[in-house]
Design goal:
Blueprint: H1 3-8, E1 18-22, H2 27-33, E2 39-40, E3 45-48, E4 53-56, H3 61-70, E5 78-87, E6 99-108, H4 111-116, E7 122-124, H5 128-137, E8 141-149, H6 159-164, E9 169-171, H7 174-183, E10 187-197, H8 209-232
Parallel strand pairs: 1-4, 1-5, 5-10, 6-8, 8-9
Antiparallel strand pairs: 2-3, 3-4, 5-9, 6-7, 6-10
Helix pairs in contact: 2-8, 3-7
């Protein structure tokens, strides 16, 4: 058995032309994608849909970035990250439950660099054509700038930097996908839904009933929206 099948649980030739990478899966997301279970292999899990392969990667840049690199050996042409993100600050029209599509992503992937404030920030970009198609597919998808972080705890130290540089949202995988996809000459984009707001509604505090309901429906709706978009490709 080759390494791809050991790591993914399926033959590389079975991977669809569009892949959706999810760092985590909850019941709302699975319901939106119409997926009942994901078969987990040595490292990744895959569920096959008619129009795309849904790949569970685990959280973090290393796992998701490596997954994208492995897809170079498949017929995958489009790679879309789907997951949650945090807002730097609340600002209309963005709030808990909003759906965003980053037009660029600043890389703060190193925990040590964030801790010691010793980094030269690089910026990575999605495929322009794929991103524009996503934005035009639904008015509910908002285009923003994003930063991928190597630490959730340290994010509050960088709020002033984020605001100064027009960074609206933070996540833990996006820049790695854009970097890896460009390296293997594949198209990449990201669709993220807002699950928290730094300081105002931090990830470690429970949300109120209204926000919880918004977040649950948003995860389902965003997954359904993405499924519909892929059918249109």
């Amino acid at each position: 058995m080759d390494d791809f099948k050991l790591l993914f649980g399926i033959d590389k030739d079975a991977i669809k032309s569009t892949c959706v990478l999810v760092p985590f899966l909850n019941k709302d997301m699975m319901s939106g994608f119409g997926v009942k279970n994901v078969k987990k292999a040595k490292l990744y899990g895959v569920a096959q849909k008619e129009d795309f392969s849904l790949i569970y990667t685990g959280v973090g840049t290393a796992l998701l970035g490596d997954c994208a690199l492995y897809l170079e050996r498949t017929k995958c042409e489009n790679i879309i990250l789907f997951g949650s993100c945090g807002l730097v600050k609340a600002a209309k029209p963005l709030s808990i439950g909003s759906i965003i599509c980053p037009d660029k992503c600043y890389s703060f992937e190193s925990f040590s660099d964030m801790l010691h404030k010793d980094h030269k920030v690089k910026v990575f970009y999605p495929d322009k054509g794929l991103r524009e198609k996503l934005i035009s597919h639904s008015a509910s998808i908002k285009q923003v700038s994003c930063a991928t972080l190597g630490s959730i705890k340290l994010e509050e130290r960088y709020i002033d930097y984020f605001i100064k540089n027009g960074i609206d949202a933070v996540d833990m995988e996006c820049s790695a996908l854009f970097s890896a996809a460009a390296f293997i000459s594949r198209k990449a984009a990201a669709v993220l839904y807002v699950s928290d707001i730094i300081k105002e509604k931090p990830f470690y505090e429970g949300l109120g009933f209204e926000d919880e309901a918004s977040l649950s429906s948003c995860a389902q709706n965003a997954a359904r929206l993405l499924t519909g978009f892929i059918k249109s490709l």
